[in-house]
Amino acid sequence: DAVRAETKRLRVERLLGSAEEALLRDAPEEAIPLLREAREVDSGRADVAEMLGEALAEHDDPVEAARALQQAVRLSPETGYAKYLYLGQLCCGETAVLSMRKGIELLRRGSPERSGAGDDEDEEEEEDDDEEEDEEGNGPQLCSALCGLAELLMEG
Prior knowledge:
Largest sheet: none
Shape: globular
């Protein structure tokens, strides 16, 4: 059923596009229902779960945000550092520290900010030169993540 799969993919892409537009207008109350619908259509997409979790975190629903982000982690554990940094802020104790450390590890490896729709854990590792270049380009994010980790460690 390639036609059905393509129809589902296009529907999710349309919902994600509309949700992104709503988030750009600073209207998470419009984006969240669209993201929930996209997750219902295709619960196997890490990018959908991740975007929903981030929107919920920004809209002050930390419990549901953490659930969505944890789903994104299960679906795509080695791609997308942002979900781990959000979880580090939403969780407490050792869970928060472990999440922040994983996000920092991915950030240093040059992982994209978010999981992609077609993430595959068997993708080849990037060249060392590319990783160094990505880490330098991610300097502000890395600095912020390290500061967040330091704060968590000082609290604990």
